[in-house]
Amino acid sequence: MKTLSDKVALVTGGGAGIGQAIALALAAEGAAVAIADLNETSAQSVAGRIMASGGRSLGIQADCGDVASIQTMVAQVVQEFGTLDVIVNNAGLTRTATILDVTEEDWDLINRINAKGVFFCLQAAARQMVLQDRGGRIINIASISGRGHKRSSSVAYAASKGAVIAMTKIAAQQLAEFDINVNAICPGPTSTELVAGITAARARESGKTVEDILNESRKSIPLGRYSTPEDIAAMVVFLASTGGRNITGQSYNVDGGLVMS
User: pLDDT digit string (tens) for 182-201?
Assistant: First the structure.
């Protein structure tokens, strides 16, 4: 039997990269999956793939930095599927900048989605889960940058992901009485278009090739390889399943051993 066959999940930023892998993995385990993305075409494309494989899915256009959009997003999921059991707060963005170059615009743009957006998505989902009175799982995608990893794309990004780790702990404590588990996943270097863009920027700044930058980065990882989006998705599936029923308030590094904490 599939582990999530009776669950409804919502994945923000699910139109590409890690979010897409998470949505497909949850669907493969039987969950009905709503994919929310700023790019409606991408969200509907992933939903179409799930439905073509016999699953239940819904593509939603949503701005996860806007509270009204977040509330509408959750309402759409409940209207379509009748409930919300799992939310994966994956939507996020970054800008590459040194601590001397981060602008107010960078700070506001990054934290609008990565910190504010995650909180209000978490809150909207929790309110629905409390109303349902059947528990739930909230899974936040943070980053090893939030633990202070020195190769963060920017201090603004690191601060936003540190906020995700902190709010995960507080939310886990305050929502435990409702049988709602709240955990975070902290990816390290992962093979996505976002990371490819950051790598290309570092190559230009240093005068090195992209392959040089990748080789240097891999050497610092004990297991010697980047994660794939599917590696992150596998941890999400575990935390959403019965195997994760007694785990809450934790932040798990998925990074090949790069940060051991």
Answer: 999 999 989 887 777 777 77
pLDDT of residue 159: 98
| Candidate CATH numbers 1.10.260.40, 3.20.20.80, 3.40.50.720, 3.40.930.10; the one for domain 8-190+228-254 | 3.40.50.720
What residue ranges of the chain are covered by domains with CATH 3.40.50.720?
8-190+228-254
pLDDT tens-place string over residues 29-69: 999 999 999 999 999 999 999 999 999 999 999 999 999 99
Q: At 52, is the secondary structure helix, strand, or coil?
A: helix
Q: How far apart are CA 42 and CA 49, in angstroms?
A: 11
In total, the chain counts a number of residues equal to 261
Contact between 183 and 252 (Cβ < 8 Å)? yes
User: 């993305």: which residue's tokens?
Assistant: 37
Which residues are part of the catalytic machinery?
Answer: 157
Residues 6 or more apart whose CB falls under 8 angstroms from that of 164 comprise: 89, 114, 115, 118, 140, 141, 142, 143, 146, 184
For 190, left (φ over 0), alpha (ψ -120 to 50), or beta?
beta
Largest CA distance in the chain: 56
Q: What is the 3-state secondary structure (H, E, C) of 108-136?
A: HHHHHHHHHHHHHHHHHHHHHHHHHCCCE
Q: What is the dihedral of CA 184, 153, 227, 23, to 10 degrees?
A: 50
What is the model's pTM?
Answer: 0.94
